[in-house]
Write a structure and sequence with these properties.
mainly alpha; 4 helices; flat
Length: 79
Amino acid sequence: MFNGYVKPLDGEQQNPDLRARSDVNWAALGWPGVDRVQFVRQLDRVRVIRNGIAHFDVEPMAARSTEELREFVGLRQLT
């Protein structure tokens, strides 16, 4: 599940065990120039878009969703 990528990094999530380890997980990535909160929000947005595609949403993907995916790829390329 894609949420498995979001939760280990999210320091504001509800699961207290994962929240407690999220700082260590983020540090392990070694991305000091990346804003963690922004990255986690964008990663979660990618999760939502991915779920729409994976679960065969009958509506075509919105142009804004395509742009969000491109922005996320651009952010990842900086790390």
